[in-house]
Amino acid sequence: MNDPLVYLNGAMTPLSEAKIPVLDRGFIFGDGVYEVIPIYGRKLFRAEQHMARLFRSLASIQIPNPHTKEQWMALIQAVINAHPADDQMVYMQVTRGVARRAHAFPKEVTPTVFIMTNPIVLPSAAVREKGVACVSMEDKRWLRCEIKSVSLLGNVLAAQHAAENEATEAIQFRDGLLTEASASNVWVVKDGQLMGPPKDNLILEGIRYGLIEELCAAGGIALQARRITRAEVFGADEVLLSSATKEVLPVVSIDGQAIGNGKPGAIYYQLYAAYQAAKAA
Prior knowledge:
- With about 280 residues, the protein is of the alpha+beta class.
- Helix content is about 30%, strand content about 30%.
- It contains eight helices and 15 strands.
- It has helices spanning about 25-30, 45-60, 70-80, 125-130, 155-165, 205-220, 230-235, 265-280; strands at about 5-10, 10-15, 30-40, 45, 90-95, 110-120, 130-140, 170-175, 175-180, 185-190, 195, 225, 240-245, 245-255, 255-260.
- The strands form two sheets. Strands 7, 8, 9, 10, 11, 12, 13, 14 and 15 form a nine-stranded mixed sheet that branches. The protein has a six-stranded antiparallel sheet with strand order 2-1-6-5-3-4.
- Helix 6 (about 205-220) crosses helix 8 (about 265-280).
- The longest helix is centred in the C-terminal third of the chain and has 15 residues, at about 265-280.
- It starts with a strand and ends with a helix.
- About 35% of the residues are buried.
């Protein structure tokens, strides 16, 4: 579809015709939140968890939720139905709305709601079999990373750092401790145990974080959430990325240094297979 239908503030409209006022606070301040939900076989995957995170993000920055969960689901379904692809990626964004430019929250403003979808693009089998290269960098973002904010300049700069180094992701460290990548959670495997940073304000709790917890419990993989040092990352047997578009992806080198034996490992293969089974369930 060259001009797909999207939802904007109460109406379905062609993407090329979807417009917002320049004084929308999402445009002026990045004052808004977003959520992304994968769809497989025209079915939303872990929609409950995604919607709960959207509602948490709205509450965190005090934007009144403009819809009930049932209304949200109906709007999302309408956008999905307008597109031919069976596997999609729905994007939802809510900003505080349009108001005179002033930093403090305006009174009596109506949130802007935007929903679109695109065909989902996942890593190829060849990429998965080979694994991906990453680079490291210092995490210089703000301290409210648990909010899925549209203010993503820090993530954009990290992703650009990866792109300039022909890497898939930039893995970030704050004061020598692992946080997350530019658009992924990061996992470390050592001696058969999977480890991830704790779910706090220094990372966005990816929906895959909870899924991986469930897959580990079902598959007998030991999982520990704790602070992870830079040395532990580089000395790991495996490093994995997780996100809606990467699902679970093996990292085989960081900054040109091989991770483990430089190949995807057993824990990756087990989690990837379990992930695919969860999608099909």
